[in-house]
Amino acid sequence: MAWLIIIISLIVLWVASLCKFFCGSFHDAKAAFLDDGRVFGRNVLLVIAHPDDESMFFTPTINYLTLRGHDLYILCLSTGDADGMGSIRKEELFLASAILKIPHQQVKILDHPDLQDGFGKVWDWNLIAGFVEDEICARAIDSIITFDHYGVSGHCNHRDVGRGVQKLLHDFSERPLEAWELVSKSIFRKYSGPVDIWLSKLFALFFDSRHLQCLLNEDPSKTYAAMAQHRSQWIWFRKLFVSFSSYTYVNTLKRIH
């Protein structure tokens, strides 16, 4: 009987969270993310490791930024060619970016011999920092978003991207640059779906808005539509991830610079 009560309670919590999510009644009382009173939006650079990272992990942030008139640029540091489908995955990223309202010319995909997709492939942090710095200067970037030290899934390429950006921030002094990292979550929170909205909100209460922000996905249909463009990766376990992962519903970003 006790287990039945627990299961029913979890189902009720899940449904209530989902209803709150779709009703759009989740509002953060903190200052708006990247809103400093400018007449025009910011130039924001999203740095990822592989095509599909943007759709699997960052769509709440992407939707938030594009709906508020910020210019979002994507720098993808590899073609995702671990299985020999790099050219296909490049085109899939452009298709997904169109769904996410990011113009083709604002998406750059690298194919450097020392930045190839794969577990166990060590990426040079200095090399990453150099490519990111080039993009910052070329696009007049004033804000940057990327992975944290764990990289959400623990993938070594994700982790190296985060470390490379941190390396750049440590050395970069030409002009002010605001940077944020996507906070990795525990397995429980990662697969708690809309329930994590409440957990993220609670977590954010202990931080100043200048250092941590929780962004709700304001257009969840885009998440599924964008990820579906990555047909070469749209297999059963990724479908489950997008269906049940909290990253579909909310992104928690921590300021790193």
Automatic annotation (TrEMBL):
Protein family (similarity comment): Belongs to the PIGL family.
PANTHER family associated with the record: N-ACETYLGLUCOSAMINYL-PHOSPHATIDYLINOSITOL DE-N-ACETYLASE (PTHR12993:SF11), N-ACETYLGLUCOSAMINYL-PHOSPHATIDYLINOSITOL DE-N-ACETYLASE-RELATED (PTHR12993)
Molecular function as annotated in GO: N-acetylglucosaminylphosphatidylinositol deacetylase activity
Organism, scientific name: Olea europaea subsp. europaea
Protein name: N-acetylglucosaminylphosphatidylinositol deacetylase
Keyword set, alphabetical order: Signal
Enzyme Commission code(s) on record: 3.5.1.89
GO annotations of cellular component type: endoplasmic reticulum
InterPro entries: GlcNAc_PI_deacetylase-related, LmbE-like_dom_sf
Gene3D superfamilies according to UniProt: LmbE-like (3.40.50.10320)
Span of the signal peptide: 1-19
